[in-house]
Design goal:
The protein is α+β, with helices and mostly antiparallel strands. Helix content is 44%, strand content 17%. The protein is built from seven helices and six strands. 8% of the residues are buried.
């Protein structure tokens, strides 16, 4: 608090405090008047928004996502639609986009249950710098998928169908001679080999450059009847073992 001196008879205050207060009051009034003359309240700084580059980047990303989705829907539609001039002219581009990741079929509505059990195994080969060849033991890929599905109420689509569907597509495109006769057959062969190589890499140590698959097919026996097998009951077929050729893969260093 300011100390105010005793007042003189004429009303003035000793010590000059009143004069200083009056000067300060005058300056305050003058500042307010200047603000009023300049347009009222002082200007406030506008809030800063996101930079223009960020907004433009978001808009471009949204446009690209929408365009990709539209192209995907169009290509899938042309693949499942009846043959037409457009799908026949651009069949190569359509198949390259759809297969093997976006393949469409009607098995959801007309399921085709498996009639055989297949055990798919893989082994690898590595050539050492001194020229010696090292071949690994067989690694059961089917058992790996079975362990991932068993006792899991929500098994993944990868564990259930990736390897099985890859082998089914391989049979459809190669037949029994293991030679690709089309570009799609070669793509399916590489797809199957890459699946096997990736799974061996994730669960085994070592380095390899080639991989071989072995597929053992066992027919599913018919359920027994109450009176035992009849005279015309089919005899179970023996297991069929098929060895695929050695395939070169990108060098993998497992472990």
């Amino acid at each position: 608090m300011r100390e105010v001196g005793p007042a003189e008879p004429d009303g003035t205050v000793r010590g000059g405090v009143a004069s200083a207060d009056a000067g300060e009051s005058d300056r305050t009034c003058a500042g307010r008047a200047a603000q009023n003359e300049g347009g009222g309240t002082p200007a406030t700084e506008a809030p800063s928004g996101p930079p223009f580059a960020v907004k433009a980047g978001v808009q471009v990303a949204v446009v690209l996502c929408l365009a990709t989705a539209l192209v995907h829907v169009l290509l899938v539609f042309l693949q499942v639609a009846p043959p037409n001039p457009i799908s026949q002219q651009y069949s190569r581009q359509i198949n390259a986009w759809v297969f093997p990741l976006f393949e469409q079929n009607w098995r959801l509505f007309a399921p085709d249950p498996e009639s055989v059990n297949r055990q798919i195994s893989a082994r690898t080969m590595h050539t050492a710098p001194d020229g010696t060849v090292q071949v690994s033991d067989w690694f059961d890929l089917t058992a790996l998928d079975t362990a991932a599905v068993k006792h899991d109420p929500f098994p993944s689509h990868t564990a259930q169908n990736m390897l099985r569907r890859a082998w089914t597509s391989y049979l459809e495109t190669h037949g029994g001679d293991d030679r690709p006769h089309s570009q799609r057959a070669l793509m399916i062969q590489q797809y199957l080999g890459n699946i096997a190589a990736d799974r061996v890499t994730a669960h085994r140590r070592g380095t390899f450059e080639s991989i071989q698959l072995r597929v053992i097919t066992v027919s599913i026996a018919a359920p027994p009847t109450a009176g035992g097998p009849g005279p015309g009951a089919a005899v179970p077929k023996p297991a069929d073992t098929r060895y695929l050729p050695w395939w070169k893969v990108a060098s993998h260093a497992a472990g």
